[in-house]
Amino acid sequence: MTATDQRSERLLTVEDLAVSYRTRHGAVAAVRDVSLHVDAGETVALVGESGSGKSTTAAAVVRLLAPAARIEGGRIDVLGHDVAHASPRTLQQVRGLLVGLVPQDPTVSLNPVKRVGEQVAEVLRIHGLADRRVAGIEAVEALRRAGLPQPEVRARQYPHELSGGMRQRVLIAIALVARPRLLVADEPTSALDVTVQRQILDHVEELTSETGTGVLLITHDLGVAADRADRIVVMSRGRVVESGTPDEVLGDPREEYTKALLAAAPSLRGARLVHGAPAPAPPALEVRGLVKDYPLPRSGGGGTLRAVDDVSFAVPRGRTLALVGESGSGKSTTARLALRLTDPTSGSVLLDGVDVSATRGSALRALRRRVQVVYQNPYASLDPRWSVQRIVTEPLRAFRVGGRREQATRAAELVDLVALPASVLQRRPAELSGGQRQRVAIARALSVRPEIVVLDEPVSALDVSVQAQILDLLTALQRELGVTYLFISHDLAVVRQVAHEVVVLRDGRVVETGDVEHVFASPQHPYTRELLAAIPGARVRVGAPDAAPDSVPGAVPGAVSGATPSEAPDEGGER
Prior knowledge:
Rossmann fold, 36% helix, 24% strand
């Protein structure tokens, strides 16, 4: 077969697919009349918000739908196999051999009690492609092809001993070890740093181009789709609303929904949400010479790991300072030190110029009221057993602020402040979307009127439209309440929108700091330039061809900018 023939070979055909879910209130249609195809050597990106049906479509392709799901109609053809109606025996032949799957979350997708090499080798043994000895050798080679350093060592490790990026590479090795013709990648890099994301997508691109493998890439990041896809399929409310090449879909979108996604995408969105240089303000929070050492286990030779090394910065009152860097750069540890959730090895933390590094007892408790935190994952940070009202008023009860009536009044004020309806007060987190949960987490943090809020990756788990809504909300609250933010993020596109100053961390040390516009327009350190270059979306030019280029490396000239779409749904739970 020639390269041209291989490229034109149809690997996947989906026609008029319909999928529904059984609920207590009857069947809910999640996917309706979806049609798409993937050819050999081609990458097709399926994009849309949470609830658009993109992950359900991907799960249907490999028949790994939830028990409550049912394929109501349509056809799914994988290299001549009718997957929609296939028997378990046929599905076993299709999965792994013809279709490889890279799921979104390696934390729950890998067996925690089995070495990663065994998990890769298992695919070959299940399909009878190798015996135990050969499968072990092939597993190491698959890990090497997936970009894992020292694959012989990694193969003997357990998932918890690897970083998030390494675990994601293991999933890629598992998906590709049997050299399938089609790869389904469901949000494979959504929670990873931009540099790790680029490395992993580069590896997938390289591995699939060598073998002519087709890729169905599920993503909510239009920047990733712009950079990596040959064609883009846009889904909304279970239907395909637009499809075409990146230049067609992103350069000249026809549908208002696609335009709204573009306006919300941080890597394609040109507008900053914070502006101007207000009068100089004294530091609300300052850290000086912070150092944090952790002892290493004696079994590994002992010694210490320096997670934070001589970090200093100041956050002016009413402003936002962003700490950025890859996983392991020390940004979250620095935030914990600033919050006094852990003690520094040396250095000091100052609030309003007062050293609180050694604060203990009741004074430390009073400090907690002045500094609150919003965590990355609203699914894990909210008690699933409690109503929203109880969650929001928990800090008020802890600090004995007001009686029940005053606390209930304050809860109603707060949900209104974060643009939630009063009806959510009696609901539980499981009944809310991801964006609504994060709004509840913000309301809880603001309940005791803190001076400083630490935001630890507050939008990285959200799709682009909900992410844009939360960022708009945070900036509006800062203008209204004068709250100071310490913003922790690995997403520089988000940082550029919301931060006034930025501190770049690498290996626990500050490598660059300054005004966001200055640092992004003229980065001095090679590491900062590397982070900026890794922002997705640089390969496509959105908007008019004569649009003036943005000064920020990796930004897209002429990108649709401005406020998020007012009608963008705040839907949670991918269907």
